[in-house]
Amino acid sequence: MKPKRLKEGDLIALLTPASAPSKPERVEAGIKFLNDRGFRTLVMPNSGKQRGYLAGSDEERTSDIHAAFADENVKAVISLRGGYGAGRLLPMLDYDLIGRNPKIFTGYSDITTLQTAMMSKASLVTFSGPMAAVDMVNDISNYTIENYFKIVSGGWQGEVPVPEGEKMGGNRKGSTAGISAGGNLAVYCGIMGSSFLPDPNGKIFFFEDVSEPPYRIDRFLNMLRLAGYFEKAAGFVFGKFTEGDAGDGPTLTQSEVFEDYISMINKPVITNFPFGHINDLFTVPFGIKMEIDSDRGSVFYSESAVD
Predict the structure, then answer these.
(1) Which of 72, 86, 194, 246 is positioned for an S-S bond with 251, CB 3.0–4.6 A?
(2) Are 14 and 44 in contact (CB under 8 A)?
(3) What are phi and psi of 42, to 5 degrees?
(4) Cα–Cα distance between 37 and 140 in angstroms, integer?
């Protein structure tokens, strides 16, 4: 199910499904940025709350999501930031309410859990894209922002352009088509085995991660392998993986880990896609038809993600 495209003057709800922004001024800067682009904003009532590493209680954060989707004036819902805690809300969400009121829902990182759940339970197309108090403040990437609005407002489809100086790679296993899914690798694997993940058959999975040492990336990729994803998926697109501290002991490099696992995938694989905890981030809609060519190193959005 596709949401309606975003138009100038539309109302955007801002909320914190996981952790609270560490600096209130980043929230204000994100609001100003969206207002300056011609949108109205509504900060949900519990967004300023904090309970340890959570942005308020599970009930408060769930209430904000429900209120945003139930409000007929709200056309888009953008997370202020990720962090941790969104996965705690999955059993509490009203997926019938969300499905009856499709809206542009944007975020990444820990927001992955909500996006996979909305895809599997409400058939909603969601957007792994810029967050208001993270990517819409300070050093704002024109590449990130302009491509985001092309997708959610313009209904863009076509071959994904890469930032200047960048190039995608591939494993030279030909091309394939499928439905996009995925998100943050660690977060996705953290709910493996639950009913909140999409059926992997025929999907093209996009994955990225941040500050994970090689052995943990190894663990997550092995989880996908053991769960049958390498056989069931149509293909894989790996984004940016910023490497964490591996400690003082012997280790594989991140490149070695990926070489090991990509060699086990007899399907098209794309690498170095502009996706992840990076400045130049290309928005990935989850739930639309895509094509990848691992010989050319290209990704093609075959349909618009909005109506």
Answers:
(1) 246
(2) yes
(3) -135, 110
(4) 13
Distance from C-alpha of 220 to C-alpha of 205, rounded to nearest angstrom: 14
Active site residues: 109, 208, 277
Domain boundaries, the chain: 11-140, 158-301
Of 180, 197, 167, 183, the C-alpha closest to 271 is 167
The neighbour count for residue 270, using CB atoms within 10 Å, is: 24
pLDDT digits (tens, 9 = 90+) for 214-254: 999 999 999 999 999 999 999 999 999 987 888 788 999 99
Rg (CA), the chain: 18
Q: Which CATH number does 11-140 carry?
A: 3.40.50.10740
- Long-range contacts made by residues 256-262, C-beta under 8 angstroms, separation at least 24? 256/214, 257/214, 257/217, 257/218, 257/221, 258/217, 258/221, 260/218, 261/218, 261/221, 261/222, 261/225, 262/171
| Angle at the Cα of 228 from the Cα atoms of 121 and 87, rounded to 5 degrees | 35
CB 133 within 8 A of CB 30: yes
The DSSP output letter for 110 is: G
Residue ranges of alpha helices (H) inside the chain are 24-36, 58-70, 95-100, 112-122, 142-152, 185-190, 214-226, 229-232, 254-262
pLDDT digits (tens, 9 = 90+) for 249-307: 899 999 999 999 999 999 999 999 999 999 999 999 999 999 999 999 999 999 999 99
- Span 158-301: which CATH code? 3.50.30.60
Q: By three-state DSSP, how is residue 145 classified?
A: helix
Total-model pTM: 0.97
CA distance 107 to 295: 30
Could you give the strand order of the β-sheet that contains 11-15, starting from the edge strand earlier in sequence?
Answer: 40-43, 11-15, 74-79, 104-107, 126-128, 284-286
Cβ–Cβ under 8 Å, residues 211 and 109? no
Q: Give the H/E segment covering residue 206.
A: strand 203-212
Q: Which two tokens stand for residue 81?
A: 């930031």
